[in-house]
């Protein structure tokens, strides 16, 4: 298969608005793809090479100055093996070799293909939003139910492998996907509830647990081998020795646990989220000692050879308590006084509570209503589109942020507002240095960036707007923090923002208690 076909399809996808049209475009390409190039084609189209992040910067690429080829001749498998070589070329002395590999690849690409490869290599093409469309396209191309593809994708976390199985072996091959210790699966997510009373009324028999404001972890253990993954399935095992040691000591042979991790201050309060996140990038011993991470597990997905995804939460929690004991998150099943748990959680410095249906299975990768989050402050996770240069005291700093919501159909983010409120001096410093690394272009006022960074915004609500393209604008938005644990694909959608127009205004949500 020619790379050119993938590039044309990608451009075609970007032009189409409707989900149905996008699905049709993709499934046509997949139907014609040779079995040995299908996985790579799927990976390229969703912007996520199977080799993981290759880590080539925009500057490196533009400095290579490879003269484009006249006519397309690169095949998908050639590009895939070139990426494999690149990913394998690391360590000292690798810079020159990597440049040579890159130059050789780019010089065989047409101008259009070069542009595509630039975006693929820098991660700009990475479109998690396209994953849902891709799942449907794979189902259509393979003639299998979308649900079967979705389930296999959730278990494997890998669309290319899932597509390959669907096309090669149909429903039977998809049904053979199991939890594999050492292969992370996408975490189950929660929906917001208006209040604790609403949440408990909606769900019936519930577990009410602290909602801790740390970082999500998924821990896998087989024998003495332990792996730790983040919310986005990035492996951080090497950075969190205290967690791996602790998990190695749990009374079991194999286990997959879902939980939250954070560091505490000396008097037992949660430390700021940024500090917890910083541990995922650091192995410096003094930092490890100062910021000892503790795990708070809230789910058990696999124990000693048995998959528990389809078991009700009630049963999963019984296994969880048996295996993780004192490391289980604080909470109670069918509490007589749910309010008391919320009060205690907030008083301890946490975010709120999670209310979970005790009869529900673990819906990997889904944001359903079996888990409801109750927190007094409403926030949105938005994509940074750019920032304006500040004035006065903020002269020389990138300040006023342009914020976008995700297009659920895989298009570019939709701008919904701007804010410079809530930015601390530290955040100003940080974003002034960081944003230019993601720069797409600039003018006199602002630096515009590729949509990679997610920021958590607190707001009073939204209002109808004729100025912004989505017809909706944020009211009184302020920055809470950046969310390095999230990709643009995890950001809130324009539909979520629009829903606030009609719903109760988040700012008026009861401040319980
Ligand atoms: N007891 C708990 N059960 C489940 N998740 C919990 C719990 N305590 C904290 N969390 C965290 O809350 C998150 C669930 O909320 P949600 O599905 O909205 O994800 P999120 O968008 O990261 O959340 P938020 O933006 O509210 O922090 C989980 O990803 C997890 O990191």
TrEMBL record:
PROSITE patterns the UniProt entry points to: DNA_LIGASE_A1, DNA_LIGASE_A3
Requisite cofactors: Mg(2+)
Keyword Plastid: no
Function per UniProt: DNA ligase that seals nicks in double-stranded DNA during DNA replication, DNA recombination and DNA repair.
Molecular function in Gene Ontology: ATP binding; DNA binding; DNA ligase (ATP) activity; metal ion binding
Record: residues binding ATP: 209, 216, 231, 260, 298, 367, 373
Entry-linked Gene3D superfamilies: DNA ligase, ATP-dependent, N-terminal domain (1.10.3260.10), DNA ligase/mRNA capping enzyme (3.30.470.30), Nucleic acid-binding proteins (2.40.50.140)
Assigned keywords, A-Z: ATP-binding, Cell cycle, Cell division, DNA damage, DNA recombination, DNA repair, DNA replication, Ligase, Magnesium, Metal-binding, Nucleotide-binding
Catalytic activity: ATP + (deoxyribonucleotide)n-3'-hydroxyl + 5'-phospho-(deoxyribonucleotide)m = (deoxyribonucleotide)n+m + AMP + diphosphate
Similarity annotation: Belongs to the ATP-dependent DNA ligase family.
Active site: 211
Name of encoding gene: lig
Name this polypeptide is given: Probable DNA ligase
Enzyme class: ligase
Gene Ontology process terms (BP): cell division; DNA biosynthetic process; DNA recombination; DNA repair; DNA replication
Pfam family, any one: DNA_ligase_A_N
Organism whose genome encodes this protein: Saccharomonospora cyanea NA-134
EC identifiers of the protein: 6.5.1.1
Domain ATP-dependent DNA ligase family profile: from-to ranges: 296-407
HAMAP family recorded: DNA_ligase (MF_00407)
């Amino acid at each position: 298969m020619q790379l050119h076909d993938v590039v044309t399809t990608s451009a075609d996808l970007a032009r189409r608005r409707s989900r149905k049209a996008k699905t049709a475009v993709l499934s046509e390409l997949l139907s014609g793809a040779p079995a040995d190039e299908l996985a790579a084609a799927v990976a390229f189209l969703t912007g996520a090479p199977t080799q993981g992040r290759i880590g080539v910067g925009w500057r490196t690429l533009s400095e290579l100055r490879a003269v484009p080829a006249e006519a397309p001749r690169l095949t998908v498998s050639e590009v895939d093996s070139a990426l494999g070589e690149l990913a394998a070329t690391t360590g000292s002395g690798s810079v020159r070799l990597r440049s040579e590999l890159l130059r050789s690849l780019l010089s065989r690409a047409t101008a259009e293909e070069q542009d595509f490869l630039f975006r693929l290599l820098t991660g700009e093409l990475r479109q998690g939003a396209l994953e849902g469309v891709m799942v449907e396209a794979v189902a259509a191309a393979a003639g299998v139910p979308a649900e079967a593809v979705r389930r296999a994708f959730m278990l494997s976390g890998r669309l290319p492998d899932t597509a390959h199985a669907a096309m090669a072996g149909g429903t039977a091959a998809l049904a053979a996907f199991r939890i594999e210790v050492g292969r992370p699966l996408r975490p189950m997510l929660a929906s917001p509830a208006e209040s604790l009373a609403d949440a408990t009324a909606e769900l019936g028999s519930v577990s009410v647990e602290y909602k801790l404001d740390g970082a999500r972890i998924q821990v896998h253990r087989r024998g003495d081998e332990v792996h730790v993954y983040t919310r986005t399935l990035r492996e951080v095992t090497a950075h969190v020795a205290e967690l791996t040691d602790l998990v190695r000591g749990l009374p079991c042979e194999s286990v997959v646990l879902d939980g939250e991790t954070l560091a505490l201050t000396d008097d037992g309060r949660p430390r700021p989220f940024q500090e917890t996140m910083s541990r995922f990038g650091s192995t410096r011993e003094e930092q490890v000692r100062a910021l000892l991470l503790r795990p708070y597990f809230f789910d058990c997905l696999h124990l000693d050879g048995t998959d528990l995804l389809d078991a009700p939460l009630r049963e999963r929690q019984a296994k969880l308590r048996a295996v993780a004991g004192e490391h289980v998150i604080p909470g109670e099943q069918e509490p007589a006084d749910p309010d008391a748990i919320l009060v205690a959680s907030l008083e301890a410095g946490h975010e709120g509570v999670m209310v979970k249906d005790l009869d529900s299975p673990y819906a990997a990768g889904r944001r359903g209503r079996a888990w409801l989050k109750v927190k007094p402050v409403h926030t949105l996770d938005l994509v940074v589109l750019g920032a304006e240069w500040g004035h006065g005291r903020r002269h020389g700093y990138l300040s006023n942020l342009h914020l976008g919501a995700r297009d659920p159909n895989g298009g570019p983010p939709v701008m919904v507002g701007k804010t410079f409120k809530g930015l601390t001096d530290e955040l100003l410093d940080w974003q002034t240095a960081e944003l230019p690394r993601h720069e797409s272009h600039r003018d006199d006022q602002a630096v515009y960036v590729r949509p990679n960074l997610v920021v958590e915004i607190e707001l009073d609500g939204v209002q109808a707007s004729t100025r912004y393209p989505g017809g909706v604008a944020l009211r009184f938005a302020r920055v809470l923090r950046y969310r390095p644990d999230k990709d643009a694909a995890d950001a809130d959608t324009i539909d979520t923002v629009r829903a606030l127009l009609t719903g109760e205004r988040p700012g008026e949500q009861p401040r319980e208690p």
